Amino acid sequence: AGSLKARISELIPQKQAELKDLKVKYGSKKLSEMTVDMAIGGMRGANALLWDLSLLDPEEGIRFRGYSIPELYEVLPSAVKGGEPIPEAMIWLLMTGEVPTEAQVNSLTEDLNSRAALPEFVERILDNCPRDLHPMSQLSIAVNALQRDSIFAKAYHDGVHKKDYWEPTFEDTLNLIAKLPLVASKIYRNVFKDGKVAPFDPKLDYAHNFSNMLGYGSSEEFTELMRLYLVLHADHEGGNVSAHTTRLVGSALSDPYTSFAAAMGGLAGPLHGLANQEVLRWIVHMVEHLKTKNPSKEQIAQFCHETLAHGNVIPGYGHAVLRKTDPRYVAQRNFALKHLSHDPLFQTVSNLYEVVPKILTELGKVKNPWPNVDAHSGCLLCHYGLTEADFYTVMFGVSRSFGVLSQLVWDRALGLPIERPKSMTMESIRKMFD
Ligand code: FCX
Questions:
Q1: Which one of 8, 173, 258, 388 is least enclosed by Cβ atoms within 10 Å?
Q2: Phi–psi pair at 121, nearest 5 degrees
């Protein structure tokens, strides 16, 4: 009692009734039209997924269970007075739709900490990965290996009843969320440092252990940055590649490990999560190319034009749904203004904000010229010495587990079916309309 699992168990009948009511009342209503353009164009604008954890408004940005990012700062507890919200509180909010009490947050921290250890063979697999295997590939490998202990896969094998699917899904989800900081830290320490990971301390919270194991725990500010980072990247409604992949693969009743590993393959794409790596690489390249740590706005504009002339995108700018500056960008900018306003890299990131939107607008085809979450995260991490851009998307992945796996628990609790949209050939489309 009092645990996250107990609370979810209480909420399930209500949510099942709500879904039934939705079907009865609105089952035959149209959510949007589907045009040929949409089928060709990545299904942009198709309202085709049910996803309860968060909703993205094109103008306002993301709301998590109804709360905007500024509102999260008001309602979620923080570890430092007036500081960043605690990731465990975010997990509770995403899973239940309810703001947790401090006691509930503490119980979740304890629960997660009791699940954090890795099987030895997974550590060995990571130790045997070559250093030049991309950290995201190593993450997928480790998550797939953790699948050995999937409670859902075993329960399914043993014939668990449909109505109980959510429970082993929940166990796998919490186990995986708990283990990801150590997986990520091991990858980081192996690839970029001496391979040694600081010991896990069961008395500390999730973000504090994560920053310790990465090797940055002596800085309270970095730990606060981890809290912010882990909260901001947790979910971005259901249609983005990592969320949709988890849903799609999970809908075949693949277990949470397999579903999440697949999602990490999607997050590793440069148009999605890898953009945070690309942003930093691109800025470092610009600074080197221009031979100054403080490029002027004119120099930055010139460099942007060159990037576009080469047929490349400006990483960190644009979005498939958003049409304004990403509030996740704003939250990171606020963190920078509070803690590192004189950092030269931050100055450049700020200058980009003044230069890039105008240039992208002039192209005439970019639907959103404003920065997204990935335009800012690298400069914050760099400030504290975490300069290895190839690692950034792994941290994004740790956070993304909170949202996509919580939704997967609900997919099982609500009995959502296997996904199977209909596809068309060019010829069949022609025949339909000629
Ligand atoms: N720089 C240059 N061109 C861009 C651009 C950018 N930042 N953003 C969009 N465009 C171009 C597109 O490439 C497309 O060109 P085309 O017609 O010649 O193919 C045109 O503008 C229309 O695209 P648009 O409808 O605005 O954008 P999409 O919905 O197709 O794609 C992404 C959205 C995010 C993929 C796109 O804006 C992009 O490539 N941005 C850079 C990469 C990035 O930052 N990704 C991270 C997004 C996100 F926050 C995340 O998932 O982490």
A1: 388
A2: -65, -30
Single out the catalytic residue among 236, 244, 319, 383.
319
Q: Which helix (H) or strand (E) holds 54?
A: strand 54-57
Q: Is the CB of 250 under 6 A from ligand 1?
A: no
The overall pTM is greater than 0.95: yes
Shortest-distance Cα residue to atom 9 of ligand 1: 366
Q: Is the CB of 65 under 6 A from ligand 1?
A: no
Closest ligand 1 atom to Cα of 372: 49
Q: Which of 99, 95, 399, 386 is nearest to 232 (CA)?
A: 399
Cβ neighbours for 389, distance < 8 A, ≥ 6 positions apart? 276, 277, 278, 280, 281, 284, 378
Q: 275-383: which CATH topology? A: Cytochrome p450-Terp; domain 2 (1.10.230)
Active site residue 164: no
What DSSP string describes 107-126? Answer: HHHHHHHTT-PPPHHHHHHH
Nearest atom within ligand 1 for CA of residue 308: 2
Over residues 94-101, the mean pLDDT reads 98
Determine if ligand 1 sits within 6 Å of the CB of residue 356: no
Query: Would the pLDDT of 1 be above 70?
Result: no
DSSP tag of 163: G
346: which 2 tokens? 């931050």
